[in-house]
Every structure is written in structure tokens, then in C-alpha cells.
Specification:
The chain is an alpha/beta fold and about 450 residues long. The protein has 10 helices and 23 strands. Strands 8-7-9-10-6-11-12-13-14 form a 9-stranded mixed beta sheet, sandwiched between helices. Strands 15-16-18-17 form a 4-stranded mixed beta sheet. The longest helix is centred in the middle third of the chain and has 18 residues, at about 185-205. The termini are far apart. Bound molecules: thymidine-5'-diphosphate and magnesium ion.
Length: about 450
């Protein structure tokens, strides 16, 4: 007999409390508690094993090779650590409108050798068909569409069709009969995920689960799922721009260093295999205020353009605004320029953009950021075949960055003639093999001299 009880859950992190709280003691979120009904029989622990395992000596354990399914999407294969692992469950998270449904439908459609099942709780079958046509449809003879929100029905249909790959769009819209709470609540999400997990493991079918993240946290965030699933992929990017980054946040079968880069086109997401070539614009004429940084994100190295505009502040208080770069870091760099290189920037507005709407946290782009600021201030353009890679410290010193060899070879490969790095990189033995002119600099003041002299 199942007993009904009520509890309050934080919709942000899943913290459970017997009474309502204004502030969540676990994640600090305000006003995030919602009352939910929980039936005693199911506390979310569906996957508990019936037979208790015995301890085994680690040397006696044989490693079973995971069976991997190669998808037609190479960026995705790489992100997953070399294809989709049979029986694994992956969460694709991201803000609404970023392209989660597009990408997963695209993957489901373009597997000629696999029987795929795309379950949508958000769109009707004809809406999905329209989208599929927009995506070029091609080779979709084996893709089944199921508009359904009741999990028990979904699992029943899945057992009937016996697909090789399942997409659930999205976890917030599906619900199980076992619980009274509404779809999207913490207990529903947990229970559904656990049931899907059991289905994936028992049938050895890989499952993609889509999860929305909203800024106001009104729907239970996929955060509570992160420890249940095998793989977490997170969409990043500004929906006003065409580029999307898919980042691997957790992967039980591969590295989390990988990122996938996609471009949103009129017919779906296109894989970007050569990010440097699309993120760096070759202008016909030299422009002041722009410079190129050799950056690394995860395991991927690419070049990216930084653009700055420095102008006299119209009203006493100068503005500092950035896209894709931490504004506090910009303020720090401006302070360093003021103190260590004698630039009077306190009365200037400074705007900084990273091309393509991509967010960069790699400190190695400091050097390029400062170069574009200097270039804009003096209205002197930086030659288009120069490139920068170095971190700037508070005393104005240029600090070495990791994996400098990878960065320099990327710049060389793209035809750059000169790269500026920290003087502490001089000792790296592999650097002698490069044909590109490597300039070693120690202080920010040396950089200003180089740029000012054109
Ligand atoms: P969608 O995948 O529905 O986002 P999510 O599932 O993450 O909420 O798609 C988001 C946006 O992509 C939508 O605003 C329209 C746009 N889009 C394209 O630009 N090209 C396309 O081919 C498709 C299918 C969508
Ligand atoms: Mg969607």
C-alpha cells in the first residue's frame, strides 16, 4: 500500500523539506520551494538492485568493452568520447530556443542504419514533420515520432518498436502515473529519469534526455538530474548569434575536455570543423581595435577575434561593457594599463566584443584584449597576420599560458606571420621548430611600444 505524503522541494536543486522555506539552505535560492505529493512506495530509488552484490577483488574484475554506436554527427561522436555508448543516458541541457530539439531530431533523422524513436511532449507529430523537412529529412526511413507525455505509454511503445536510440524531448513535459505531482516538478523529474535509466540499462538502448534550464528557475532545473545520468552536455551561446557551443560537463565514458561547435543555419545545426576560419574575419582593409587571440577551450584550440572600442565618455561616468568576456576582468586589465603603461582610460568608455557571440574564459586572451584596447585608443590598426596568446598579471607582467605549442601551431596553420607570447615561454624547447615569428614579451609596456610603432 502506498502512503501519500506531502513535502516541499526546492525547484532549483531538489532539496527536500518538511515545511516551506523562503530560502533554500542547500543552494541559497530564494522562493524556490513548491509543495509536491510524494507516494511512499516510490522515493525516486527505482534502480535499487534486488540481489545484493558481493565484494570482488579489483584484480578479478574483467573490463567489459562498451559497445559504441557511431552517429553521423562527428562533433557529437567526439563529444561523447567516440560514439554513443549502448545503454547510456545523456542529458542535453540549455536555455529554451538554443537548438536542443533541432540537434536531437537531426541526429535521430540522419541514422540510416538505426531505428530511432523521437518522443516529443512539446510538439505535435505534424510540427515535428515540418521541422524534419526543414532539416532536409534525408535518410529518415527509420525514424519514429511519438507525441506523448505519459512515461508508462512511452516505455510501452519503446518496448514494441524496440529502437536502437531514443530521444525524450523534454524531461520537464513527461510524467509518470505513480506520482500525483505535476510534470516538471522535482519528484516527477527524478522518478521519470530513474525509470528511463532503468529502461536504458535493461534494453541496452542509449537515451538522450533534453532538459530546459530557465534563468528564473521556475521549472525544476536539470541540475537534479546531473548525478543520475551518464553524460551531461550543455548548450552555450547567445541565441542572437549563429554559433552554439556544446560542452561536455560530465562523461562516464570519455573526457570532459571536449567541446562541439555548431552553426545554426536555415536548415539545422551545421558542424563547424574549422572554428578558427569562421571566427576570425579577414577584413579587406586594416581596422583599428581588433586583434586575434590563440585560445584553447577544453581540448580544442582555435583563434578568435577580439574587438574593442574606446571613446570619450559622454557623461562623467564611463561605461564598460563586454560580450563574451568577463567585465570584471576587463576592469582589471584597464587598471593594469592605467597603472603600468600610463594610459588614461578612466575617462573613456570601453566596449569589448568577442566575435561570434562566443564566451571565452581562457586567460590567454588577455594579451589580445589589451592589444585591441590599445589599438582602438591610438586608432592604429594591428596587422592582420599578428596573433596574441598570454595572460596579464596585476603587475603588468605577461604570464605564460598552458599548451603554448598547440596554440602556436594553430596560428601557424592559419597563415599568421607573427605571434606574441610571454617571455617565460622562451625556454619551451619545441618552439624552435616553428616558422612563424614568435615574439617574446615580458611587460605590458613593451606591448604598448610595439603596437604604437605599428
Ligand atoms: P529549438 O531546437 O526548437 O530550440 P530548443 O529545443 O532548444 O528550445 O530551435 C531553436 C531555434 O532555432 C528556433 O528559434 C528556430 C531556429 N532554427 C533555425 O534557425 N534553423 C532551423 O533549421 C531550425 C529547425 C530552427
Ligand atoms: Mg525544444
Amino acid at each position: 500500500m502506498s502512503k501519500i505524503r506531502k513535502a516541499y522541494f526546492c525547484q532549483q536543486c531538489g532539496y527536500e523539506s518538511a515545511k516551506w522555506l523562503g530560502k533554500c539552505p542547500a543552494c541559497g535560492e530564494w522562493n524556490s520551494f513548491v509543495e509536491e505529493t510524494v507516494s511512499k512506495s516510490s522515493s525516486g530509488r527505482v534502480t535499487e538492485s534486488r540481489t545484493s552484490p558481493k565484494p570482488v577483488l579489483i584484480n578479478d574484475i574483467s573490463i567489459e568493452e562498451h559497445k559504441r554506436i557511431m552517429l553521423s554527427n562527428n562533433e557529437m561522436n567526439r563529444l561523447l568520447g567516440g560514439g554513443l555508448v549502448a545503454g547510456s543516458i545523456a542529458l542535453i541541457g540549455g536555455e529554451p530556443g538554443i537548438g536542443k530539439s533541432t540537434l536531437s531530431l537531426q541526429i535521430a533523422l540522419k541514422q540510416p542504419n538505426l531505428r530511432t524513436l523521437y518522443v516529443s511532449g512539446e510538439e505535435s507529430a505534424s510540427q515535428i514533420k515540418l521541422r524534419a523537412e526543414r532539416l532536409g529529412g534525408g535518410n529518415s526511413g527509420n525514424c519514429y515520432i511519438l507525441p506523448e507525455t505519459l512515461l508508462e505509454n512511452i516505455l510501452l511503445q519503446a518496448k514494441e518498436i524496440n529502437p536502437d536510440f531514443v530521444v525524450i524531448d523534454s524531461i520537464q513535459t513527461i510524467y509518470t502515473e505513480k506520482l500525483d505531482s505535476s510534470p516538471g516538478s522535482v519528484s516527477q523529474i527524478r522518478e521519470c529519469a530513474a525509470l528511463l535509466m532503468r529502461y536504458a540499462k535493461e534494453s541496452n538502448t542509449p537515451v538522450f534526455v533534453i532538459g530546459h534550464i530557465t534563468k528564473d528557475g521556475s521549472i525544476a532545473g536539470p541540475k537534479i538530474l546531473e548525478h543520475i545520468v551518464d553524460v551531461v552536455l550543455q548548450f552555450e551561446g547567445d541565441s542572437n548569434y549563429i554559433y552554439r557551443l556544446l560542452r561536455s560537463m560530465k562523461n562516464r565514458f570519455g573526457s570532459t575536455d571536449e567541446i562541439g561547435i555548431f552553426e545554426m543555419t536555415g536548415n539545422g545545426l551545421r558542424e563547424v570543423t574549422n572554428p578558427s576560419e569562421v571566427l576570425v574575419t579577414r577584413h579587406d582593409e586594416s581596422l583599428s581595435g581588433s586583434s586575434v587571440a590563440a585560445t584553447i577551450d577544453g581540448a580544442r584550440s582555435f583563434l578568435i577575434e577580439t574587438q574593442a572600442l574606446v571613446s570619450t565618455a559622454a557623461y562623467g561616468t564611463p561605461q564598460r561593457s563586454t560580450t563574451g568576456f568577463d567585465v570584471r576582468r576587463l576592469n582589471m586589465l584597464l587598471a593594469v594599463l592605467e597603472k603600468r603603461a600610463g594610459f588614461r582610460l578612466a575617462v573613456k568608455d570601453v566596449f569589448l566584443n568577442i566575435a561570434g557571440g562566443i564566451k571565452v574564459i581562457d586567460p590567454a586572451i588577455d594579451l589580445a584584449v589589451v592589444s585591441s584596447i590599445l589599438s582602438s585608443t591610438a586608432d592604429i590598426s594591428i596587422p592582420q597576420d599578428w596573433c596574441f596568446s598570454g595572460e596579464i598579471g596585476l603587475s603588468g607582467e605577461i604570464r605564460p599560458v598552458n599548451r603554448i605549442v598547440t596554440r602556436i601551431s594553430e596560428a601557424e596553420k592559419l597563415g599568421f606571420k607573427k605571434i606574441f607570447v610571454s617571455k617565460y615561454n622562451r625556454k619551451t624547447p619545441e618552439l624552435s621548430k616553428f616558422k612563424i615569428d614568435i615574439q617574446y614579451i615580458g611587460k605590458v609596456a613593451e606591448l604598448t611600444k610595439t603596437i604604437m610603432s605599428g
